Amino acid sequence: METQAFGTLNYIVLLLYLVAIMLVGVYFARRQKSADDYFKAGGRIPGWAAGISVFATTLSSITFMSIPAKAYTSDWTFLIGQYIAIAILPFVFYFYIPFFRKLNLTSAYEYLEARFDIKMRLFASISFMLFHIGRIAIITYLTALALIPFVDMNPLTIVFLIGVLCIIYTFMGGIEGVIWTDVIQGIMLSAAAIMIFVMICFNVDGGVGEIFSMSAEADKYFPAEQFAWSWTDSTIPVLVIGFFFASLQQFTASQDVVQRYIVTDSIEETKKALLTNAKLVAVVPVFFFAVGSALYAYYSQNPQLLPENFNTGGILPFFVISQMPAGVAGLIIAAIFAASQSSISSSLNSISACYTSDIYNRLGKNTSKEKALSMARIVTVVAGVLGVVASTYLIMSNESELWDAFNSLIGLMGGPMTGLFMLGIFVKRANANSALAGVVMSIISVLAVRAMTDLNFFFYGVIGTLMVVLVGYLTAPLFASNKSEEELHTLTMQREA
Q: Might you name a Gene Ontology BP term for this protein (predicted)?
């Protein structure tokens, strides 16, 4: 299929967006006096901004494009996951945020050393860093891959615009620059989804009523068969369980989200951040699914507009480039760039926070504030370059089927981390050696299940998490505790014991 002419006006709009994002990084660069500023923003971030940042961080460009494609070709069942993410927030409010705020952490994994030992801290931190370097590469690659058929840009140019510019503004502005660019990007993502839906409604005969009527007739919301239990397919019961543990991992054991809990000046502002995120998650993703239904109605009425043998995974950018007015199309493509950059910049800053806090400061000697800040910026650049190089390799080698494989590894790497936090906070008798036994068994179990069964990948995180907790609990009496009663009183929820 021929690429669409992107047009001068669209290029101007995209360029203006990229310049604006760069200027935000330049503005906040002057406030970065220490590593504490670079990772915590001196507590200057209001709760509502941190909340939009969490929302933008967890919504990548792949989600931005794949949700409408999913609703177009299939149904709305994956919307369940968004509301599971909201449902766990009271749990996070009550049990997790007090620990992260009280201990004044830079890296979430500092808690694991305080509760267990340095091995658990390094395991979780290194796992997080490796996972997110891969995430940067794959998000950049898949974004470029999705846009290549529709815009007349070289794929390496797309990688450069997304990756290199993201490195620059993250390098300069630290977490403060990242969060305020996330605010801009989160607003752009939300406005783009609403704008696309409204514009399609005006182009469908019968308008919004016809859109939802056609989807209902095609049984494209929550089909009855999706409520059946399955060990291999992503039916609704599987999604509920899988998204519960995936959301738990994201909100309790992932540095890029947990870091938002410590950039505000009070626990009330931190809770406000998650409430803001919950409101956005409750509303905005519905528009992404509605866009998919609207595209289904539009192209059902106008099938001649779709090229023969069209890959429907790119239905959203195809509509934007081919049907939306010049300038508006550039704004939507800028929103896709924004979705990618908001995820990548958060990954870069959190990788830097983990390395600086968990390795450089923890294992190094005589690390001054100035040296720590310099190291933080160096790591930001190195992690970004690694991600861009890996993404370039993926483009040159034309790799495929990466996203499903990458998602399946979340259980392998995210499950043990989530389990460690659960074990530490809720199981008072657990100790460093029982936690290590739990992690080892967790990794072995997930690898065995992945290699020997057809179990749906949503179960990997469940197995990885629960295996750490179960084995950590059962083996605890075999080892002597390395923490005093006073330390356990501070580091666990079972304070009455």
A: sodium ion transport
